[in-house]
Amino acid sequence: MIKKIFVLLLISSPVLAQPSKTMQEKFVAFTMLGSVEDQEKQYNAMVKTEPIDPAKPAMYEEYRAQLATGWLTKGNFERYWYYKHTNPKFNPLQFLYLSYALDHLLDEDKNMVEVEKVSKDILDDLQNGRMSDGMGRTQPVMEVNAAANARLGHTEAALAMIAKSSQVKDNMRDMRYFKDQKSNYLNRLGIVLLAAGKYQEAFDTLSKAFREAESNPTMINTFRQVYKKLKGTEKGFEPYLKSLQEEAYRECYAEVEKMYIAAPMDTLEGTFPRRKPEDTPMTLFRAKQPVQAISMMDLDGRTVHLDDYKGRVLALDFWSTGCTPCVAAFAGFDKAVADYKKDVFQMFVVDLFEDEATVKSFIAKKGIRLDVLRDEENKVYDVQGTPTKIVYDPMGHIRFYSSGYAGSTDREYYKLKSMVEITKARYKG
Q: What pTM was computed for the model?
């Protein structure tokens, strides 16, 4: 597992091979283009200017892999197969995005015939050594294949594949790194059990998932179908689901409440949670100045003064584009932000270490809606690990800080919402 984590930490760059610096810079610029259509235009221009040398068939291999990944992400199977059939070698980051694309296509219930075909082809490539994982994402591809087979009515194949997915050596489901890894599995298991007519088992599985906040919004539709099959009606589903969600929220609230900083702190050196009482504290961040004195740049180059948000609960979450768990948390943040008016709660996700062009390209491609600030040199808070979150009360006192990804969209939402509600409840203006 240590080796796995080390590999994950190395994937912040789109290129893991060892090309010359010039070639690597060209490829990075290529990946930053705003759309796969623009990437394809540039690729065609490159090939026209400098045709592929028959003696070097792998000359533009990583570009073709990137185009295949981009077209699958967009749901264009025809273009995906066009580039996939050129047999490019996918680097670990491209494999990661292939698995993300399959996640999205399954959740959108788009063209299950092609989703099953693509996922099976990738699994065959993994088994035959034509593609390598190194990322702990084989399980999700297997789960997608199982769920797609279930939706296509191939029940036995679905049951066999979902069972096989749990036998994978590098089991990453309980490691809170990838977005909704365990809740996605539980949802796909529910889809397979539903198709197999195992309604009670599916109901129990999904009830437990929602009760324990190992859930996400996509799971609701599966749960609704299971409930209707088991009960013979949808009547009662909404209040039952709500009761499970409220139970999960209360559990998160009680957990978060223990983290509340009762003494009014304008500055603070936050530390990583200690595994053992005797462990030496390690610095997580240094808030050396009051929040009212802090300013940072937004993505339009404007200076944002945090003093302008006095009177609101203010949350800052520190991230970078290469931090997978950082971005995984954003879906939960979106849900929390949607619950409040801007005059009550303001959240900024603060990108560290990266230039404006990199962040803008990433935000555009991912469709991120959160308010983004930048601290390229990491001078303001000297953050030592991402993701890190700091929550201020309306007077600018630090009331919470935490690190890491909660593991599911719903749990991330419940925890942030709990921080806001506890801060509001204890604030004496």
A: 0.91
